[in-house]
UniProtKB/TrEMBL annotation:
Pfam family, one: DUF2255
Organism: Marinactinospora rubrisoli
Name the UniProt record assigns to this protein: DUF2255 family protein
Length: 125
């Protein structure tokens, strides 16, 4: 299994946003969309603000693969669904910390049950 380098982790974690382009079922990339990304330990996580109905999330879940760009890193990835409730709590904390200036607006939906159900770990390919 490929792992993130320290430089990749640091670059992506420091980036305010990440561009994500999940693959369609036919293997072609979707148009990239801009989303938030957080780091927890040596892993990177994303969630769908719109919950399971988010179009990029549906594509990511269906194909399991895509491409990301953030913090000077341009990488193909696998999307791995995260179901560990303990990890999800730590990811909630990471969103609160990184995006604290949005605590009154955009962060609460990212911590809601719908968004938590879409937590994906980014695994480099």
């Amino acid at each position: 299994m490929t792992k993130w380098t320290d430089d990749e982790l640091a670059g992506i974690a420091a980036a305010e946003e990440l561009r994500i382009a999940p693959q369609r079922r036919d293997g072609t990339p979707r148009r990239p969309v801009t989303i938030w990304v957080v780091r927890q330990g040596d892993d990177l996580y994303v969630r769908s603000y719109r919950g399971p109905e988010g179009s990029w999330f549906r594509s990511a879940r269906a194909s399991g693969q895509g491409h990301i760009e953030a913090g000077g890193v341009d990488k193909d990835v696998n999307f791995v669904e995260e179901t560990d409730l303990a990890i999800n709590g730590a990811i909630d904390d990471a969103y609160r910390t990184k995006y604290r200036r949005y605590l009154d607006s955009y962060v609460p939906p990212m911590l809601a049950e719908g968004a938590r159900a879409t937590t994906l770990r980014l695994q480099p390919r």
